[in-house]
Each structure stands twice: as C-alpha cells, then as structure tokens.
C-alpha cells in the first residue's frame, strides 16, 4: 500500500480561564466641583489649568480684606468684653456688694457672645480660600484673577486619577459566577499594546430595569495617569479557575455526523480518534475535553487521503511553541517525557524521509 504524505502537530496543553468580555467606561474614583462659600473678587490662583495638587493645598484665594477687618473688629469687641468683666470681678473681691449678681451674669453673657462672634468671623475667613480635599488633577479654571466669583459658583473641578474605576454591566446569567475581588484586565484604544489590571470592587445588588443587566465596577491602579475618565475600554473579567485542556489546530478536526475526530499517527500508521471538543482558543486552536493526551501526533494536512491503517510518511511537524499561551508548568513529568519522545521520533522520521 502506498504511503500517504502528511504533516503533523504535537498536541499541547493550555490553561484556559473562564472570562466575561464586555465594553466598559472609565470613571474617576473621586471628583469634586470646587466652590467658595463666599462671593468676592478672585485675588490669586496658586495653580494652573491641569496641575496636580495634594490634599490640603491652597488652590485659590478671594479678596478677604473685608472679612479680615470684621475679624479684627470682633477680636477687639471680645477683648473689651473680657476686660470689662475682669475689672468687675476684681472690684467684687474688694466690694462684694458693689454690683448685683444679675449684672455680673449679663457681663459674662456678653463675653460669651463676643467669643462666639469671633469664632464665626474666623470661620468665615476660611470661606475665602479654596483648599484641595484630596490628591488629584485640576481641570481648567472658569474665572481669572480680578474677576468676581459668586458663592457656590464652580471655579474648577478636581479629579482623582489614581486609582480609577471601570464601569460595565454583565448579564443575569453571569451574576452567579461574578465575585468581589476577581481579576479584571482591560485595553483602551489609546494604548493598544498595553494591558491594565484591576479587581472587582462592586457588584450591583439589583438588576437594572431598563437593560436587564447588572452593573459591575473594578478598580485599577493608575500611577502614571495614562487612563483618563471617559475612555471606553474592552474589559475581561475572570469568573472561574483555570481549566487545563489539550489543544489542537482547528484544521486538524474532522466531522462524521455529530461526532468529531482527528487522525493520529501511531508508529507509521494512521488512526482515527474520536474526540469531544471544548472552546475555541485564539490563534486557530481548539480545546479538546476528551480523546487526546499531551504529546500525541495529530495530522493537520493530508488527512483527506487517509484511512484506518494506511501507512504514512511524515513530511513535517509544527513546533510545540506555536501557541504562546502554553503553560508547561501544568504538564506532568510523564506528559513532558512523552512529548519529548514524540519530537525525537518526528525528527528521526523527517531525517529518513530526506535521506530517501
């Protein structure tokens, strides 16, 4: 019987993780519209548009000359009230009947009122300053120095960029598999060659009535500020443990009705092997749930001329490094030994073919 020329591939092992693929949008973890509590002319800006600030930094200052004058006036009134009370108390030590108890109590109340007024004036003075409530980056200022800024009018927004969050939604069927702390990776168009990692920190406790889906948030470190709120992102959320599968090229798989099979090379003969398929994998590979072991020689070209027991000539084999996602650490020592043996056997066959 004439031998059939074929090309083979060594079966490999691939550790696949169940994932959810969605499109999400980046959000700032904290943002604030910064306003003054008082209305007055803008005296100074300590930062420029887009600057980064730290918590407690003075961002802007209103003209507080009137407020300072009121504070000084209140301070003087407080000092006068305390002085008057002090003189009366000193006099009462010498002449106990010189003033009624009611008059003394009224003086004490005047001091208390003066203290409250001074405290209020001092607090009011802080209303003329804009202080950063957290670390972040400023947007553009809405007013220039010298212009009047009314109370409660937004002067600038402060955005916290590290960390950031990505918001997306998942289907109801996936909710039972989603858990807090699961790892998330995402990619954005601005950095197509980069992958960013984070963790799920929020799963909505209810289903959105309009979409029928459940909202999920994941937090990501963003120390270099490359991720900007508002960006759209392709999100992958891991929802299950890694599952080890044997994988082969999709082109190696044949169909006989509903049954799927591959051709194996045993010695110098072809063997038809039924298999049960799993999920498709990137780069043209498919997972095999059962029917194959690591290190098997599977025919990937020439199988249309094969039949059971037909002798074959192996003309070439694909190297086992074709699939970059392979995880050799998941292979047992026996599987590695078998695979090395298959490789050596293939190389010997190829050398014989060349000699022929």
UniProtKB/TrEMBL annotation:
Entry keyword set: Transport
Family annotation (Pfam families): Beta-barrel_RND_2 (PF25954), BSH_RND (PF25917), RND-MFP_C (PF25967)
Predominant localisation class: other
Domain of life: Bacteria
The keyword Transport belongs to this UniProt entry's keyword annotation: yes
Domain Multidrug resistance protein MdtA-like C-terminal permuted SH3: residue ranges: 244-304
Compartment list: Cell envelope
Domain Multidrug resistance protein MdtA-like barrel-sandwich hybrid: 41-152
CusB-like beta-barrel domain sequence ranges: 166-236
Transport recorded as keyword: yes
Biased composition (Basic and acidic residues): 326-345
InterPro entries in the cross-refs: Beta-barrel_RND_2 (IPR058792), MdtA-like_BSH (IPR058625), MdtA-like_C (IPR058627), RND_pump_MFP (IPR006143)
Span list, region Disordered: 324-356
Family the UniProt entry places it in: Belongs to the membrane fusion protein (MFP) (TC 8.A.1) family.
Matching NCBIfam families: RND_mfp
Protein name: Probable Co/Zn/Cd efflux system membrane fusion protein
Gene source species: Vibrio orientalis CIP 102891 = ATCC 33934
């Amino acid at each position: 019987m004439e031998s059939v020329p074929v090309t083979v591939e060594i079966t490999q092992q691939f550790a696949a993780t169940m994932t959810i693929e969605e499109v999400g949008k980046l959000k700032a973890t904290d943002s604030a519209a910064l306003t003054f509590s008082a209305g007055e002319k803008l005296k100074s800006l300590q930062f420029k548009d887009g600057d980064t600030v730290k918590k407690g930094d003075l961002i802007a200052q209103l003209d507080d000359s009137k407020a300072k004058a009121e504070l000084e006036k209140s301070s003087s009134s407080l000092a006068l009230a305390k002085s008057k009370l002090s003189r009366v108390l000193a006099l009462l030590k010498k002449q106990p009947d010189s003033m009624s108890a009611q008059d003394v109590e009224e003086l004490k109340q005047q001091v208390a009122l003066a203290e409250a007024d001074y405290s209020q004036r001092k607090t009011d003075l802080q209303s003329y300053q804009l202080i950063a409530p957290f670390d972040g980056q400023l947007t553009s200022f809405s007013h220039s120095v010298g212009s009047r800024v009314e109370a409660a009018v937004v002067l600038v927004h402060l955005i916290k960029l590290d960390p950031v969050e990505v918001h997306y939604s998942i289907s109801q069927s996936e909710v039972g598999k989603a858990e807090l702390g699961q790892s998330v990776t995402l990619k954005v168009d601005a950095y197509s060659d980069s992958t960013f990692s984070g963790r799920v920190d929020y799963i909505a406790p209810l289903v959105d009535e309009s979409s029928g889906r459940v909202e999920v948030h994941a937090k990501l470190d963003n120390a270099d500020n490359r991720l900007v709120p508002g960006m759209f992102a392709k999100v992958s959320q891991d929802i299950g443990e890694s599952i080890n599968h044997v994988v082969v090229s999709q082109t190696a798989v044949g169909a006989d009705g509903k049954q799927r099979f591959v051709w194996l090379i045993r010695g110098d003969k072809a063997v038809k092997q039924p298999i049960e398929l799993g999920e498709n994998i990137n780069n043209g590979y498919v997972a095999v749930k059962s029917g194959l072991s690591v290190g098997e020689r599977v025919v990937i070209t020439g199988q249309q001329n094969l039949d059971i027991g037909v002798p074959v000539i192996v003309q070439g084999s694909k190297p086992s490094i074709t699939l970059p996602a392979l995880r050799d650490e998941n292979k047992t020592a026996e599987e590695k030994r078998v695979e090395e043996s298959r490789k050596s056997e293939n190389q010997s066959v190829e050398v014989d073919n060349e000699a022929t």
